[in-house]
From TrEMBL:
CDD domains for this protein: nicotinamidase_related (cd01014)
Residue span(s) of domain Isochorismatase-like: 5-141
Top EC group: hydrolase
Keywords, comma-separated and alphabetical: Hydrolase
One Gene Ontology molecular-function label: hydrolase activity
Protein's name in the database: Cysteine hydrolase family protein
Protein source organism: Streptomyces parvulus
Protein EC: 3.-.-.-
């Protein structure tokens, strides 16, 4: 049976994208993939972070214009790095018959990785979009323990190229190479 996909667009909000490494390129990759998903009948799920620094209704909390949810898109608000925790995302995907999630967004090491691994733990196959996730720009003032942004993204791409998960299919694909299977 072929997979039934859903595209997750995680935390691509004005405040986070303002901090993002390769922001324009990442937004463009996700926007192109979102358009292809909609055309193929694949659900697009826009996940928004909500907390004391990301207050609903504020400019920083808004999804960037290029990725604003369109009619028919689904929106899930979260309060933790895990897009599944206390959000109803799992029930929504189950109701749609989704068996595979395509993960994009911000930030690679936190919300993207946490959501990707939770998807695997919840029984979904996984596609991580190599050019569709990013992290914050790192400056000389940042903690010296942080890896430069380009190396961090590359490290997570390498991880998802090689990670094994019993009973799950895990793939890393460029946005242009993602295969879309309607739910």
């Amino acid at each position: 049976m072929p997979p039934r996909s859903a595209l997750l667009v995680i935390d691509m909000q004005n405040a986070t994208v303002a901090l993002a490494h390769r922001a324009a390129e990442t937004v463009a990759a996700i926007a192109g993939l979102s358009a292809r998903a909609r055309a193929a009948g694949v659900p697009v799920v826009v996940v928004r972070q909500r907390d004391e620094s990301m207050v609903p209704g504020t400019e920083g909390w808004q999804v960037v214009p290029e990725l604003t949810p369109l009619e028919g898109d689904l929106v899930v608000d979260k309060t933790t790095p895990d897009s599944f925790l206390d959000t109803g995302l799992d029930a929504l995907l189950t109701e749609l018959g989704v068996t595979e999630v395509i993960v994009t967004g911000f930030a690679t090491e936190i919300c993207v990785d946490t959501t990707a691994r939770q998807a695997l733990s919840r029984g979904y196959d996984l596609v991580v979009v190599a050019d569709g996730h990013t992290t914050s720009v790192r400056t000389a003032q940042d903690d010296g323990d942080l890896m430069p942004a380009d190396r961090s993204v590359a490290q997570y791409n390498a991880l998802y190229r090689s990670i094994g998960w019993p009973g799950r299919r895990v793939r890393l694909r460029a946005a242009a190479d993602v295969e879309l299977s309607p739910a």
